[in-house]
Amino acid sequence: MATKTTSKLVQPVSEGDHVLGPDDAPITLVEYGDLECPYCRQVNPVIRELRERMGGRLRYVFRHFPIRSSHVHAQLAAEAVEAAGAQGKFWEMLEFILEHQEALELDHLMAYAAELELDQERFKQELEDHVYAGRVKDDFHDGVLSGVNGTPTFFINGDRYDGAWDLESLLEAIEKPLGVQVRRLAQEFMRIEASGGILLLISALIALLWANSAAAESYFHFWETELELGFGQFIFGLPLIEWINDGLMVIFFFVVGLEIKRQLTIGELSRPRRAILPLAAALGGMVVPAGIYLIFNAGGPGEPGWGIPVATDIAFTLGVLALLGSRAPLSIKIFFTALAIADDLGAILVLAIFYSSDVHWISLLIAAVILLVLIGLNRARVYSPLPYALLGIALWLAFLDSGIHPTIAGVLLAATIPTWGAPDTKALLAQCVSVLSEFELPSAQTANRTQVAAQTLETVADRMQSPAQRLEHSLLPWTTYLILPIFALANAGVTLKLDQSLVSMVSIGVVLGLVIGKSVGITLFTWLAVRLGLGDMPRNVSLRQVFSASWLAGIGFTMSLFIAGNAFRGNPELLDQAKAGILLASLLAGVIGYVLSYFTSQTFAETSPAEAVPATD
User: Fold this and answer.
1) Is residue 613 in some structural domain?
2) Domain range holding 429?
3) What's the gap between Cα 491 and its chain centre?
């Protein structure tokens, strides 16, 4: 699950900002720009026209974000604008520089100062002494904290604007018709890193309340409702709970498989030395909890549930880390993302190997043939999703009848979805510029030319992501905001009987396995891997912080509930005990992990990985 970037303006408009427009304007547009960036120059006329159209309703603020790694004169140009601003000519110098980006040496800047009738001696001295370098650095630093990673970047009333830069798109975003407002609210909720966990929590609470209310009987009967699909003589039916657990959850495992594949090919698990530490931590976080559970249940009726505490819920764990904000360094979030992915892979193997029923070899052979065909499509570089979807359904049906848990079909299907190498971005950029440049010709302004250009740009956009990446990006919101909440609603309902549900060997084994076993196992195996020289601790992370955050891995929830349903299929009493233990353990692990992480971590100002805050010369 990719780490999301900040999208809020961290530094509000202040007296030190350069502002055009009235202070009481209802709309504030903040631009982070690089004065040597050609895109900033190209969008400048649009901003000028926008200010004219909005009049007194718009307040425009410009802040510096010089990207010195690619624009060698950007820092000096930003300081020149500030030096001109000290003499009351900030905006005039800004326009001069944007129009003459090809000439930004000191001599050129002095010539612009002369044209603006500035005090040249003062202007030159301030540039040589870098009087305003600190001011530029502050703008850049605030931009990094706000999630700026390129120029220009715009914020409308404090929210980052990620839409098109043309005038009509900007006006629509500012004036906010009803459709735009609804879309914006949905996007804002989805930008909250804990949003998936919030929906899961709400669904679990509804299930608990429903299962312990006067209408409890309707809760259990509803999920046992038979749902049939038919075509002619062919009728296929399953209880609703099985459609969710063995059907919808295949899509979730498909997305998990895509993420595992991405991590193994280009992510944190793609380089052996960087992969060893999260893999070792994940192994410890599986072996120790399972061992603790078996201490209480080996040889008893609850023994099949040993796999329940090995799982970690990625959405909840990363959601709580997100709530810590800057107190959790980016490196520990990446580390636990990789750990959770490795944990998911381990949980999938546990499901496939230990929680499958009697194997039907004919169905398994059919599944193997379908899998070989899918691999053939991959090798033949077939990129259309349709054949993979049709064969994926057939693969699921084969696994459903084989005795091997059908969710494995989702993971195997994900492994066959094509990927490709990183694109040549310079060539694609040249192609985009070439296509759009044609619109400057009068003859190019035709509906047919527009359609051809749109198709070309869509092709370029498709090349930026492999089919596997596109599918993961498209399906992730569906699994996060629909499938997993439905799963929680259907599976988290348990009739709580304190004398039975929480004081049984199964629930005690689950609670201690998740709460104690995860933290001990992850910390111990991480320490061993570092001491043996197999891996290095992440940057800005201590073993104490790993121990604190490792408690969060005890939030088993989704995967633990899923394994529990398979471990105690047909034994509702033990299943209820396992569910109660999972819910209590997840609550304890989340609270303890958050408190410990908060008090053992300092505040980190995380910067973009591509750019560092420029030092004052």
Assistant:
1) no
2) 425-464
3) 25
In this structure, the strands spanning 58-64 and 27-33 are: parallel
Say which residue, 611 or 587, is predicted with more confidence. 587
Q: Is residue 363 part of a domain?
A: no
Are 444 and 324 contained in the same domain? no
How many Å apart are CA 206 and CA 488, to the nearest integer? 9
Contact 610, 333 (CB under 8 A): no
Joined tokens for residue 472: 């993961």
- Provide long-range contacts, Cβ within 8 A and 24+ apart, for 357-362: 357/403, 358/403, 359/402, 359/403, 359/404, 360/401, 360/402, 360/403
| Number of residues in the chain | 617
What CATH number corresponds to the domain at position 479? 1.20.1530.10
Q: Which two tokens stand for residue 614?
A: 């420029």
Report the SS3 class of residue 237.
strand
Judge if pTM exceeds 0.85.
Answer: no
Mean pLDDT of 502-515: 90
Reply yes or no on whether the pLDDT at 153 is more than 90. yes
Do residues 310 and 349 touch, judged by C-beta distance below 8 A? no
Residues 108 and 147 in one domain: yes
Which backbone phi and psi does 15 adopt, to 5 degrees?
-65, -25
Q: Domain containing 74 — which CATH number?
A: 3.40.30.10
Residue 143 has pLDDT above 80, yes or no: yes
Nearest to 274 by CA among 534, 3, 550: 534
Considering the domain architecture, whether residues 70 and 132 belong to the same structural domain is answered as yes
Same domain? For 439 and 484 the reply is no
Return the pLDDT at 5.
Answer: 47
Q: Which of 148, 150, 144, 157 is nearest to 188 (CA)?
A: 157
Q: Verify that 41 and 161 share a domain, yes or no.
A: yes
Average pLDDT of span 555-584: 88
Q: Is residue 581 part of a domain?
A: yes
Which residues neighbour 330 within 8 Å (Cβ) at sequence distance 6 or greater? 3, 604, 606
Count: domains in the chain: 3
CB 19 within 8 A of CB 60: yes
In a domain? residue 368: no
pLDDT for 163: 83
Residue with tokens 């305003």: 132
